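Dear colleague,

Thank you for sharing your sequence with our group. We've completed the structure prediction you requested, and as agreed, I am returning the results in plain text so they can be pasted directly into your records. Please verify that the sequence below matches your submission; if there's any discrepancy, let me know and we will rerun it promptly.
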Amino acid sequence: MTDTQTAVASGRQVDNAEPRAVLSARGLYKEFGGFMAVNNVDIDAHHARIHALIGPNGAGKTTVFNLLTKFLKPTSGTITLEGRDITRMSPARVARLGLVRSFQISATFPHLSVLDNVRVALQRPQGLGYQFWQSLSSLERLDGRANELLESVGLQDERHKMAADLSYGRKRVLEIATTLALDPKVLLLDEPMAGMGQEDISTVSDIIRSVAKDRAVLMVEHNLKVVADLCDWVSVLQRGEVIAAGDYSSVSENEQVKLAYMGTGDE
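Please find the predicted structure tokens below.
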């Protein structure tokens, strides 16, 4: 089974062309003082595809994310972005190359407006990151693109609100807008639905689906209903190893996956 297949439960149509792998890891290992947290992991994130990394607590999902985004150095293995070896690069450098992530805890500037949060994120790609001597009014040139991003995630009517005044779900939406301001080639989302109600989950799912039309998305997610509805491809981790990969329909029927999640097979 190849990852050009349609994820049965998602209803998303996948064309017959082989998708392009944008981010790849091969033979990824991470050892902490004799404990093998990640053990020989191979993974690919493809252009215009949503790939979920799932597994029980302690399976190594966040460690894999931290390796891919260079917050941790692998014990061995290689990581490539669009064919370029980024294994030993710094997190800042790979972010500039287009590998951008969110975190489990929302990271916004609470005492800035929604619009200003996005304008801050736009400063580096617009070449304004170090021009501290310019007046705040100089940032008005960023308003057009900032408003486009806010409209794309449904925050245009809240652009003048303080970020601190947004609901939890809307803060996560704002965080997605700020990551999109960096124009990522690969967007890594760490538990984007954590702590959300159903209405916010539906909104964020629609945003992620739209975002994935022109970039690769790799996400860690515990909500399996979201994974089933949203993701084209699923990799399942247990004890740091990939035990299954495929569309959600196939991995959910895998006996190793059932044992990993339930502790028992069919009875």
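Summary note from our side: DSSP finds nine helices and ten strands in the chain.

Kind regards,
the structure core
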